[in-house]
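Progress against Task 2.4 (sequence-to-structure conversion) is shown through the following example record, which the project officer requested during the mid-term review.
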Amino acid sequence: MHKGITLRKVSVCLLSPHPLVLAEWERLLSPAGFELQVRRLESTLVPALDRLPLPGAELFVTDSPAPRQATEVLVAGIQERYPRARQVVVAENFSEVSAFPLLRLGAKGLLSYAEVHQKLSQALRIVAAGGFWVPRDLLSRFIDSTLGLMRGRHVPPGPANLT
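C-alpha cells generated for the chain above:
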C-alpha cells in the first residue's frame, strides 16, 4: 500500500440467529477495519422481512444454519430492499441444490464454516470490490448450467447488417 492512500471502510451487516456466531464474526472482522453492524435474527425459520430491522450496508453476511428456503427468502429480501448491496452466505457446505438458487438471487459469496477463520475477511474484501467468492468447481457448474439453459433460446448470431 502506498503512503497517503487511505482505504474507505466497507459497511458490513452481520446476520445470524446465533449470538456466539455473531460475536465470533465480529471478533474476526473488527481488526480488519470493516464498519460492522450486527443483527440477530429471531429464528432460523423464514424471517418476516417487513419486521426485520436491516440497516443500509454495502455488504451483508448471512449465517445459514436454517432450512435452505429461509436463507433464500432472506437473500431475496435483502436484494429487493438494497439492490446495490452485495451478499455473502455462510453455511456448513454448499451443493448445487443449495448454492445455485442463492447465486441466482444475487449472492456473490458462498463460504463454508470451515473457511471462516482463515478466509472471511479476504472474501468480504473481494466481494465488496465487485468480485465473487465461490468455490471454483461450484461456480464452473453454475455457469455451465446457466449456459445450458440459454442454449435452448434463440440468440442472434451476430450484429445485424444495418445501413
